[in-house]
Specification:
The chain is mainly β and 113 residues long. It contains no helices and eight strands. It has one domain (22-108): Jelly Rolls (Sandwich). Pfam families: Cupin_2 (PF07883).
């Protein structure tokens, strides 16, 4: 089997996205799907952006103010949001926490060559 199907935590790299504020682990990926855990310190900002990928974001812990196409709401543990392809979105971390982002297709830009 050439493509990984198991992704043990001990083998995953914690990548620092914004030093001291935001980091991530690619939890699993393959085919057309990717799961990414993102760690935020309070006050960290996921600046508004858009991409071709559809995305589900599930709040594992903490509190985040999400803005999608100009509409904002607060997400807490157990809450989620669906973001359509090419829609402008961003988030601000209010209480330190973690998000699980699911993308389709995979975020090739997150994978190292």
């Amino acid at each position: 089997m050439s493509e990984a199907v198991f992704f043990p935590d001990s083998a995953l790299e914690l990548e620092e996205i914004e030093p001291g504020k935001v980091s991530r682990k690619i939890r699993a990926h393959g085919g057309g799907l990717m799961a990414v855990e993102v760690f935020f310190k309070a006050g960290a900002i996921g600046y508004e952006h858009r991409h071709v990928h559809e995305q589900v974001c599930y709040c594992l812990e903490g509190e985040f103010v999400f803005t999608v196409e100009g509409e904002s709401t607060t997400l807490r543990a157990g809450d989620s949001v669906f973001i359509k392809s090419s829609v402008l979105h961003g988030a601000t971390c209010v209480v330190e926490g973690r998000l699980l982002d699911i993308f389709t297709p995979q975020r090739e830009d997150f994978l190292k060559a």
